[in-house]
Design brief:
Blueprint: H1 3-16, E1 31-33, H2 40-49, E2 53-56, E3 74-79, H3 82-91, E4 98-101, E5 115-121, H4 128-134, E6 135-146, H5 152-159, H6 170-179, E7 183-196, H7 199-208, H8 222-235, E8 238-250
Parallel strand pairs: 2-3, 2-5, 3-4, 5-6
Antiparallel strand pairs: 1-7, 6-8, 7-8
Length: about 250
């Protein structure tokens, strides 16, 4: 089998694989990424055990929330991508959570001061004013977010050289939180090594993590994918770095 046909088969397989939810099991054995040192799921579980009413924003398929061992009496999640809403409602039955479909660009559809805990893992965006509005006085917001320049090596492998990232800087998040009336009590940063062992892993990742190459389709970037396949085949895995930060804030 020649290298180009091998690439086409890998690409076709990844293009047909489902990307619903927010799990990454499909990449097992094909890509790796270090985990942040702070243990976000453990931190969420700890705070959920002490909450009475909690909200998970951008829950994805509900993967993190479903593992909470002691959920609060009132547990709600939001999701803006319709296929994920279906997955999350099925996944979150075990913890008794209500999943609300929302407009990602719209306000949170909840009354003021509805929750004493709001969490969010890898939100598309954080509406700090809305977050502060739905938090009760003394309530907490905990979020693991994607940092500036994450997976830049992969983005540039497809798109070519890019300007310095203008968004997703941790310091910007702190400023926005404080401007909304919240008090930031914790901020941590991490750079995490990632490796992609074949072009199928790249294609599947780009289909799922859509901000890495906005507007990505296999047809649009087939030439770049075949070039990257040759690079991986001859030089070894494509190495990238994911940027993450953890931010925790309270409403006074």
């Amino acid at each position: 089998m020649d290298a180009e046909r091998d690439a086409e088969e890998l690409i076709a397989e990844a293009a047909a694989a489902p990307v619903d939810g927010w799990g990454f099991d499909w990449l097992a054995g094909r890509a790796t990424e270090e985990r942040p040192p702070w243990g976000y799921a453990r931190m969420v579980a700890d705070r959920m055990a002490r909450a009475t009413a909690a909200l998970d924003v951008d829950t994805g398929g509900g993967e993190v929330l479903a593992e909470v061992p002691r959920p609060p009496k009132l547990l709600t999640a939001t999701e803006g991508w319709p296929p994920n809403v279906v997955v999350a409602r099925r996944t979150l039955r075990r913890v008794g959570a209500t999943v609300v479909a929302v407009d990602p660009a719209g306000p949170l559809p909840f009354r003021d001061a509805s929750f004493d805990l709001v969490v969010s893992r890898h939100p598309v965006r954080t509406d700090w004013e809305q977050t502060a509005r739905v938090l009760r006085p003394g309530g907490t917001f905990l979020s693991q977010q994607i940092g500036a320049g994450t997976m830049r090596e992969l983005s540039e492998a497809i798109l070519g050289p890019l300007p310095p990232p203008a968004t997703r800087h941790p310091d910007h998040a702190v400023g926005a939180a404080e401007a909304a009336g919240l008090r930031v009590v914790d901020l941590r940063r991490a750079t995490l090594r990632a490796e992609f062992f074949d072009i199928g892993a790249v294609v599947w990742f780009l289909r799922k993590v859509i901000w890495t190459v906005p507007g990505f389709t296999v047809d649009r970037y087939r030439e770049q994918l075949l070039t990257l396949h040759d690079r991986i085949t001859t030089k070894g895995p494509l190495t990238g770095h994911a940027q993450r930060f953890l931010i925790e804030a309270t409403r006074p």
